[in-house]
Amino acid sequence: MTPKTLWRLALAAVAAVPVLAPAQPIRSDTPQTNAIVVTPPGYSPPPPGPVLPGPTLQADIWTDDDTYYVGDSIRVRFRVSRDAYVYVFNTDTQGVTTQIFPNWYDQDNYVRGGVTYTLPSRNYDLQVIGPPGRETVEIYAVTDRGQWHSHFDDYSRNAPFAALSAQGEAALNSIVVTPDPGPQPQAIVVVPNPPQPAYQWDRDESDFRVIDPYRPSPVIGGAIDVRSSVSHVSISIDGVFAGYGPGVIANIAPGYRDIEIYRPGFRTQRQRVYIQPGRTTVITANLSRQGRWY
């Protein structure tokens, strides 16, 4: 999994104080009025953000393999540490990003924490179509989807998997959180009443390799032409019955092969021959009768 860097956003919560006095924290669980804190001239505070990544929400995503042939089916699995809304995207080897969850077949993207989910879950399949290269699957999890929903519901029966729109991409980029700048001089900050609730999010990604399917070169076999003075002889190749002779036996893998020619009441003839691709090797069998013992 890609290591995640979680940033904690410093939320300024201050009470009305005299000019240049230290700021006092405001309790978010009691009614408050807007508060003003005075800053030295020229100081600009970092803009507060509505998004709080935190250790209580963690998202993980992975695939059932790290390499796929073009045409293979793929299974994508994900899990979140607490209940959240989940969005999953695939960026193919040509850089095109498609939303694969939620989709027309799986529209409910509110998932339970601690449960492993698998895509596809029902009624459809996910197939690697190439071309060869590296692909990425990416998960975003948020505890409150807010205005997100309108950016990620552009799927339909005819287009069950939506392409990532410019508005959707902007929504994903909007959750980048400003790092905590640490202790800062007092600033003039207006605290809304009540404060806007923050929500948590997390992101993860996993990549895999796409390769062309293996296509072995066709093997051109050779043949043997068994010429025997005795009819209806049995022919074995490397200890496996191959047919009757006299006659031709084809489609033999090239290389050295052990040939046996036999018939009950006659001595077995054994011969090692080299089979050449596309060529016929002639074998002459002179079987003699076995002697009788009284």
List the keywords:
six-stranded mixed β-sheet; 1 helix; disordered N terminus; 16 strands; mainly beta; Immunoglobulin-like; rod-shaped; 33% strand
Q: Explain this structure to me?
A:
This protein has one helix at residues 166-173; strands spanning 59-63, 67-69, 76-80, 84-91, 97-101, 110-111, 117-119, 133-142, 201-211, 222-228, 233-237, 240-245, 247-252, 255-262, 269-275, 280-285. With 294 residues, it is an all-beta fold. The longest helix has 8 residues, at 166-173. It folds into two domains: 59-211, Immunoglobulin-like, CATH 2.60.40.2550; 222-285, Carboxypeptidase-like, regulatory domain (Immunoglobulin-like, Sandwich), CATH 2.60.40.1120. Strands 2, 4, 5, 6, 8 and 9 form a six-stranded mixed sheet that branches. Strands 12-11-14-15 form a four-stranded antiparallel sheet, with no helix packed on it.
* Poorly predicted regions: 1-54, 177-181
Strand content: 25-35%
Shape: rod-shaped
Q: What is the chains' assembly state? A: single chain
Q: Please give the domain count.
A: 2
Q: Fraction of residues in helices?
A: under 10%
Q: How would you sum up the major sheet? A: 6 strands, mixed
- For the record, the CATH class of the largest domain is Mainly Beta
Number of strands: 16
CATH topology of the largest domain: Immunoglobulin-like
Going by CATH, the architecture of the largest domain would be Sandwich
User: Count of DSSP helices?
Assistant: 1
Order of helices and strands: EEEEEEEEHEEEEEEEE
Q: Structural class, from helix and strand content?
A: mainly beta
The overall pLDDT, averaged over residues, is: 75
Give the N-terminus to C-terminus distance in angstroms.
82 Å
